[in-house]
Amino acid sequence: MSKLGERLQDASRSGAYRATRAAQIVDAARGSSLEVVRIDAKQGVFDALARALEFPAWFGRNWDALEDCLGDLSWRPAGGELLLFETFPSGKELEMLLDVLRSSAQFWAARSRPFFAVFVDPQRELALPDLPGES
Fold first, then answer.
1. N or C: which end of the chain has fewer CB within 10 A?
2. Which portions of the chain are predicted below pLDDT 70?
3. Within 1-135, where are the H helices?
4. Strand pairing class (34-40; 15-19)
5. Has this prediction a pTM greater than 0.85?
6. Cβ-Cβ contacts under 8 Å for 81 (sequence gap 6 or more)
7. CA atoms within 13 A on the CB side of 134
8. What is the pLDDT of residues 10-47, one digit of tens each?
């Protein structure tokens, strides 16, 4: 397993990161207990996440409901999640999304389940740390 793959299995490293390429991350997670979920949020964060993560019908398409669903995930079979945002919102919507994702990562890290939100950002414009081991 690659160094990146090992780091992605480490729940204590859970969080929100940026990366320059999606392919390397998908390869590193292959064969692990992580489920890589590719997200195209250009048409709306709530619908994109609801589709990608197969949220229950009760999902209310608001920030509180998003946090509730991300804090449950009982319907997900994987031993961890790697949300790979290939497109994402900007401005206040991105700030809110990052707040929810960071909170969810902390929640799952405390339960020893890896939870990574990785934003594909080839220009490194987002104010996020680089994904450790991605180069």
1. C
2. 1, 135
3. 3-9, 22-29, 45-52, 63-70, 91-109
4. unpaired
5. yes
6. 34, 35, 37, 53, 73, 108, 113, 114, 115, 116
7. 24
8. 999 999 999 999 999 999 999 888 999 999 998 899 99
